[in-house]
Amino acid sequence: MKLFFCSKQEEVMTVLRQGQWPEGCDQTLHAHVAVCQECNDLVLVTQTLQQARRETMQEPGFGPNSATAAMLWWRSELRLRRGAVERMTRPVAVTENFALIGMMIAVVGLATWQWKQIADWLLSLTNLASGNTLYLNDPELGGFGMASWLPMVLMAGLGTFVVVWGVAVLLLAERD
Amino acid sequence: MTWDDIISQAKTSDMAETERLLMDEEIFAAFYHRTSRAVWAYLARVSGNAALADDLLQESYLRFLCARRLKDDENACRSYLFRIATNLLRDHWRRPQTAPLEEVPEAALIAADNRCSERMDSQTLLGPAFVRLGPRERQLLWLAYAEGCTHREIAQITGLGAASIRILLFRARRKMARLLRQQMLKPERKS
Fold first, then answer.
1. How far apart are CA A93 and CA A99, in angstroms?
2. Which CATH architecture has domain B11-97?
3. Is residue B120 over pLDDT 70?
4. B-proximal residues of A, 32-71, CB under 8 Å
5. What is the pLDDT of residue B112?
6. Is the pTM of this model over 0.80?
7. Which residues in chain B are classed under CATH 1.10.1740?
8. Which residues on B lie below 8 Å from A17 (Cβ)?
9. What is the tens place of the pLDDT at every residue in B131-169?
10. Hey, what CATH topology would domain B124-185 get?
11. B174 → closest Cβ in A41, A53, A57
């Protein structure tokens, strides 16, 4: 597309903006617009868009009918307050998240570092339970030995810990 | 300084704050009254959807208020408001649609938008020609020729380079003029 900028364009635009086209301008400008494709386009497009704007602005069926200034003001105040609260609580949430991550790293690190001792301890517990010395003679237990119920207790404890941990993480995530 | 002094000072500052807020609300109400229709017209014409224009208009004013720009001069406020509206339109177009337009039944489209396109299009030549332009072309043309913004203002509102506005407007204007002439030449129109 060949670009062509007419020198009279500004003048035509001013006349159009002031609403003086076609009556309020001189004949030379009329004659120019009649022969200049660029200015002719400008007049056609501007008049059409100005007419569309007038119609849209005046048409009673159209317009911002669903909101009032007071409602918008009130909603903006609410949004600002909510934003302020979020800004205030953000450092606390970030600190909590850091603490959580740090604690997890510490637990995993400790478990890795002291794995041998932990394994030995667990093994000794199992051996202790399977030994006759701590055998429970309570008839209500139906003859179950330590060897059978201690791992279950350990598993239940671990399960409870995992569930509580999961709920805590979920609550934190929801709050964030 | 006694507790009574502190309490009376706090009360005075509270009253001053309330008074300031009330004054700001009045200023905003007047500003809203002056500008809302123009912003709505821009959103409705460029998007071709009156319901969307309603939603984006509210969001534009909310963001404007949250930005605390009411103390700026009228032209700056107006320009900033149009910039927010333009960004919201852009965000809307960028957002992935839940269903492609081709898959939506035509009846649903008419029901969803019975206030805007059909009536506005029937009133002027603009509608059919305008919908065949790209979103950016519609924005540029409306801002330049309906709102009377300068190239610099359009650059601020749209985020485009000021130097490119003239060329983009030239192309959009020529395209629209061609479409309008085609529209006027159609024999079945406006019987």
1. 10
2. Orthogonal Bundle (1.10)
3. no
4. 40-42, 44-46, 48-53, 55-57, 59, 61-67, 69-70
5. 46
6. no
7. 11-97
8. 148
9. 888 889 999 999 999 998 999 999 999 999 888 998 999
10. Arc Repressor Mutant, subunit A (1.10.10)
11. A41
